[in-house]
Amino acid sequence: MTVAAAQAEVRDVYLDGAVGQAVSAFIWLASAAAGSWIGVRPAALVVVVGGAFIFPLTQAILRAAGRRADLDAANPLRGLAMQIAFTVPLMLPVAGAAALYRIEWFYPAVMVVVGAHYLPFVFLYGMPAFAVLAGALVAGGLGLGWFGIGGFATGGWATGIALLAFAAFAESRRRARAPGAIVA
């Protein structure tokens, strides 16, 4: 299997990342809501624990829609996808340490962690648009952390909205490639 074919399968199976980003957006928005109206600890638990369920929820949604939810065993990018997934939980202690120093740094730190983890998606999916998402989250996290803009949950809301926008972009991109699609 060529790299191009492997990337095409990733795009096909995971719908250009639309479902995964929508699931991620929901978790971030739920966390931001908890941070805005309940408290800091519940907000952190929602994004950290919820984050562990992004891939299983994505697979469940794909299967419920009657689609494949796994890459072919022969796909050489299968291992890369798993390695990328484990970067976030391995880097979350850094976000936790930042939050112990200053609680307002929790979301900005997690934004940087999650944004950095999207960089390899550029190769995994063969989609340079993931670099834009990665850059937006990293820059947003650094900006919010550095300048202290907004309250505690601002980064959660911003990330949820950014992920939702990317999910919509990915879905529109996928539909534009569909057979019989009319592209302006």
Category by helix and strand content: mainly alpha
Number of helices: 9
Rounded mean pLDDT is 94
Q: Quick one: biggest sheet?
A: none
N-to-C SSE series? HHHHHHHHH
Q: Write down how many β-strands occur, each being a DSSP E stretch of 2 or more residues.
A: 0
Any low-confidence stretches, pLDDT <50, length ≥5? none
Radius of gyration: 17 Å
Shape: elongated
N- to C-terminal distance: 33 Å
Residues in helices, as a percent range: over 70%
Beta-strand residue fraction: under 5%
Tell me what you see in this structure.
- With 184 residues, this protein is mostly helical.
- The protein has one domain.
- The protein is built from 9 helices and no strands.
- The chain has helices at residues 3-13, 18-37, 40-51, 54-64, 78-101, 106-118, 121-125, 129-147, 154-177.
- The longest helix has 24 residues, at 78-101.
- It is elongated, with a radius of gyration of 17 Å.
What distinguishing features does this structure have?
0% strand, 184 residues, mainly alpha
Sequence-ordered SSE layout with sheet pairings:
Layout: H1 3-13, H2 18-37, H3 40-51, H4 54-64, H5 78-101, H6 106-118, H7 121-125, H8 129-147, H9 154-177
Helix pairs in contact: 2-3, 2-4, 2-9, 5-6, 6-8, 8-9
